[in-house]
Amino acid sequence: MKWLVIVNKKAGGGSAGKLWIDTENSLIAAGIDYAAWFTEAPAQTRLIASNALNTGFDGIAVFGGDGTISDAAAAISPMENKPVLAFLPAGSGNDWIRSLGCNPVSMDSCVQALAAENTKLIDSGICRWPGGSRFFLNSAGVGFDALVLKRAIASQRFLPFTDLSYILTLAVSAFFPPHWKATVYCDGKPFYKGDYLTLTTGVGRYSGGGMQLSPSAVPNDGFLDALCLSPMNFFSIANNFPRIFDGTLHKTKWATGARGRVIRVEPASESSIVLELDGEIVVPGASPDYVEFVSRPEDLMVIVPLSESH
Predict the structure, then answer these.
(1) pLDDT tens digit sequence for 233-255
(2) Which pLDDT score is estimated for 86?
């Protein structure tokens, strides 16, 4: 296969630039036939990815972070004939590749899988609301999770956006945690109604830099896994914080889970919905009547670690 490597040196807060030379040497040593094109913006990433087949490439390998791989996937998802998608993780979170079985994350193992062309069909998702829609590759969040991300991004005026700045923003936000009110449906049947703190819907289990907010998610089962948390105070959030990372959050009394092809959130009253898709804040209109997340089974052919079966 001939690979187009989309290189985002700005990923990981700029640390990706230092990793590219070593990664390029690894690609050459592995005998991978590739050409590198550089990107500096999401729109540029999507444009490069959408033209990959027309420029003679069979596959796209993204060197960057979760945002870059999501942008490339969004460009190729609507295609009838799609190039194979691979990830060379150089971001701060690298959650998508964790969800595919590369945990701990290793650039060497990703290069080896690329050389072996070890592929698997995986799912993706689409988020819809009145008058609009948006692709997501790995995870979507409504409520507290999205609010913390929004505040962490806003804090970039004072601090670099890192895992530490995210956790600090989470801790500050937890002192006075807001909550919202809605009815949440799974495949047309309500599974949660009332006040909620946050709702995460995942294609994959990892998000937010190793957090397991959808711990039961499997990226190739055709379903989305939703986890809704009822309101919690600061001490409850603090006591259960380790569960976010060890995959046991769904076992707490605040958690209600569901698995299905369509997860729909209907706010109880007119209010803005705080929404994030693959770590990016999205504004679905001023006061949407609903936001729903829809599974796209076997949407993408991707390179997975050698430990994963075809």
Answers:
(1) 999 999 999 999 999 999 999 99
(2) 97
**Shared-domain flag, residues 161 and 113:** no
pLDDT in tens, 143-153: 998 988 888 77
**Residue 194, CA distances (Å) to 118, 169, 198, 265 in order:** 45, 26, 12, 11
* Total domains present in the chain: 2
Helices (H), the chain: 16-29, 42-50, 66-76, 95-99, 107-116, 144-154, 163-175, 234-239, 241-246
Structure tokens at 127: 């988020």
Range of the domain at 199: 127-298
| pLDDT (tens digit per residue) in 151-188 | 877 776 665 555 666 777 878 888 888 889 999 999 99
304 assigned to some structural domain: no
- In this structure, the strands spanning 139-143 and 198-202 are antiparallel
Give a yes or no: residue 70 inside a domain. Answer: yes
Domain end among 117, 152, 184: 117
